[in-house]
Amino acid sequence: MMHISRITGALVLGQSLFLGAALVGLPLQAQTDSANSQTPIVAARNLDEAVNRIIASENDLYKRLKIVHPVVETYIQRMQKDADFGVVPKTDYYFLGKLDVSHSVKDDSFIPDPGLPKRMLGVFSHLVSINFLPGGFATMVMMDPGQFDREHYTFNFLRREFLGDVRCLVFDVLPKDGAGKGRFVGRMWVEDQGYHVVRFNGTYGGASMNHSYSHFDSWRINCGPDLWLPAYVYTEETSQKYDLGLKSIQFKGQTRLWGYESKKDRMEEDFTNMTVEGVDDRSDSAADNSPIEAMRMWERQAEDNVIDRLQNADLIAPSGPVNKVLQTVLQNLEVTNNISVTPDARVRILLTTPLESFTLGHTIVISRGLLDVLPDEANLAAVLAHELAHIVLGHQLDTKYAFADRMFFDDDESFRRIEVGRTAAEEEAADKKAVEILKKSPYAGKLPQVGLFLRALSARSGDMPHLIRPMMGGRLANGKEDQRLTAIMNMAPPLHLTRTDEIEALPLGSRIKLDPWSDRLQLVKAQNVPLQSVKEKVPFEVTPFMPHLTRLNQTQSVAAARGSAASR
Q1: How far is CA 51 from CA 58, 168, 174, 239, in A?
Q2: Residue 324: exposure state from Cβ atoms within 10 A (0-12, 13-18, ≥19)
Q3: Distance from C-alpha of 51 to C-alpha of 192, rounded to nearest angstrom
Q4: Bond prior to 40 in cis (omega within 30° of 0)
Q5: Alpha-carbon distance 328 to 425, whole Å?
Q6: How many beta carbons lie within 10 A of that of residue 461, not counting itself?
Q7: For position 358, what pLDDT does the model report?
């Protein structure tokens, strides 16, 4: 009989149900009352008062989190030793669901798995003696839900320290004797104006030989005045014991949260910002739509319905600055190839980590995770060229989605109810056309570098099956026998994985940062850092979060909320 050990804060291998104490998002008000009003900042008079305010703000956040349901995504890479790189991924695990602190069990998995009964969604094809419990990762957004107080904890002040632009008070937090198992033990950083915890780092005490707690580093982002929300959690174990301590496992993982803005708040904001212009009846000069125009409008309506539904489910980001960058690269391909399509081709971003791209009619969708790992503009152009080829070849979205009632389903059904897959023949035709487009584009001279990315992706595909498993579209790679843009890959020189001057792909999180309140995306403003050793070469890998914390003033909060409403 197989012995099963648990590591709290991971995915169930064998059953990807959202187990454990799940934490959810809140319809927290974005606090957009007045752009000019400022809440007076009153500093704590002494250390005792500071601790009391920290406890109060932490427990207040827990109460607010109980009434909302943000998206929570966890991606884990199990590592193995490597002579050149120190460690490399051995396999991976993925979970996507809704956070809920008010229920101990929340079966809300978004992950599609056709061919399995609905109640068994997410079951992997093999069993191992490790259970990763996603609910455990969810608990890492709070230090101690509901019992974070002086009765259970001792708070030792260490120093003041800046995290980005935010000055913080730093405390060591220790559970008192007899406080019980599962209490947080570690360090916390508290911003010194509202006394909100913005970061905490450590683990939960009281592990047993059968049940282990992971170490984690949990971050919160300022989303408005007096509003700091859980956004990122990094998890790492270099030698986690299991099977009664006889074996060990090494892994690292990232948890992201977004979609805190409630649907009700979003609809009210949209309605409030809606302007009604004067009606000018020009019926005499208006032209009717031809049958061809009507057909195109019908197809576009299907696209818009799907995009709106996915955005409402917090799975597609609102249009923003990143879309403009992608649109510029797409236009470079169109202009140099004399491509003109009606309606215009456009680009949207799927908020999830798995690497994928696909088309919804004339809308190209590319995942946040894929944007993160692409090393340069030429590789982005190659991804867009493949999807543009589908558009040029007339590979359309099923127009059944033009009927609004087709969109009446729960958020967690999104990936199962919307079908965008292509046949093998369509993918082959798109590959061929994409090569033609790229050879006539400004990126023609950089195709060998694009081929290196594809080689690296193909080489790593067996070690990262869930990273390359698409949520909606077709696979970018599935081993050497199933690789997108094979002709481009064959142009590349051999991989030199141990060369630090050859960057085939970037680690996850390299390009895009996500606003957890509004789902809006921005490009990361980080400098290119020369690698000091081959161990810093970590393509497609999970790395720690180190966000540059800033305060969002009230004027910015209003602008962000209005911008979110306007772009939806």
Answers
A1: 11, 13, 14, 34
A2: exposed
A3: 11
A4: no
A5: 29
A6: 22
A7: 96
Helix (H) or strand (E) holding 384: helix 377-392
Q: Which residues contact 143 (CB under 8 A, 6 or more apart)?
A: 58, 173, 184, 188, 197, 200
Nearest of 135, 111, 196 to residue 411 by alpha carbon? 111
Terminal-to-terminal C-alpha distance of the chain: 53
pLDDT digits (tens, 9 = 90+) for 85-105: 999 999 999 988 888 877 643
pLDDT tier at 122 (50, 70, 90 boundaries)?
Answer: very low
What tokens were used for 472? 């909606």
Closest Cα to residue 542, out of 505, 504, 508, 506?
A: 508
| DSSP for residue 483 | B
Separation CA 326–CA 387 (nearest Å): 13
For residue 123, pLDDT over 50 is answered with: no
Report how far apart, in Å, the C-alpha atoms of 448 and of each of 372, 430, 499 are: 20, 19, 17
* Tokens, residue 426: 């369509």
Instruction: Kindly report which listed range (66-75, 296-305, 401-410) carries the lowest average pLDDT score.
Output: 66-75
Type of residue found at 363: T
Average pLDDT over residues 394-411: 94
Residue recorded with tokens 């680009």 = 347
Beta-strand relationship, 215-224 and 197-204:
antiparallel
CA 310 vs. chain centroid, Å, equals 14
Residue 446 DSSP symbol = G
Position 388: which residue type? L
pLDDT tens digits for range 353-384 = 999 999 999 999 999 999 999 999 999 999 99
Mean pLDDT of the chain: 82
497 Cβ contact partners less than 8 Å away, ≥ 6 residues apart = 84, 85, 456, 504, 534, 537
Over residues 419-433, the mean pLDDT reads 93
Burial of 464 (0-12, 13-18, 19+ CB in 10 A): buried
Structure tokens at 450: 């694009």
For residue 215, the 8-state DSSP code is E
Distance CA 281, CA 278 (A): 10
Give the residue from 481, 484, 404, 390 showing the smallest Cα distance to 437.
Answer: 390
Q: Quote the distance between the C-alpha of residue 485 and its chain's center.
A: 26
All residues at 6 or more sequence positions from 87 whose CB lies less than 8 Å from its CB, including other chains = 79, 80, 81, 250
For residue 29, give both structure tokens: 């008000």
Question: Which tens digits make up the pLDDT trace of 445-492?
Answer: 999 999 999 999 998 888 999 999 999 988 887 655 567 899 999 999
User: Which helix (H) or strand (E) segment is 164 a member of?
Assistant: none
Contact 452, 502 (CB under 8 A): yes
Residue 448 tokens read as: 């060998």
pLDDT tens digit sequence for 39-62: 556 788 899 999 999 999 999 999
Residues present in the chain in total: 568
Answer yes or no: are the C-beta atoms of 449 and 376 closer than 8 Å.
yes
Q: Which two tokens stand for residue 190?
A: 């508290």
